[in-house]
Amino acid sequence: MAQWIDACATDDIEEEDLIRFDHDGHTFAIYRSPDDEYFCTDGLCTHENVHLEDGLVMDYVIECPKHNGQFDYRTGEAKRAPVCVNLGTYPVRVEDGRVLIEV
Asked: Which of 36, 40, 74, 98 is most buried, most CB within 10 Å of its CB?
């Protein structure tokens, strides 16, 4: 059964950036968009399981730090090779300055 997990404070993430969040043996990446919205994806690249936390965030794209594959973090869609498998995405809501994800 899905549940909402308190992941971080909204101020923990700079605009156009991400943070890593680990919960129950799973790694997530939580993003803050240029429009001040929050999104959550799996935290590991689907190409070689590299942590995305050190990747470059530009607009709505996360670039993997290892082979420069890109994903749209709003949808998880793989956008540039070598990645070809989409990232999993998770619902996000903000309450009282906290970012919650549904897992």
From this structure: 40
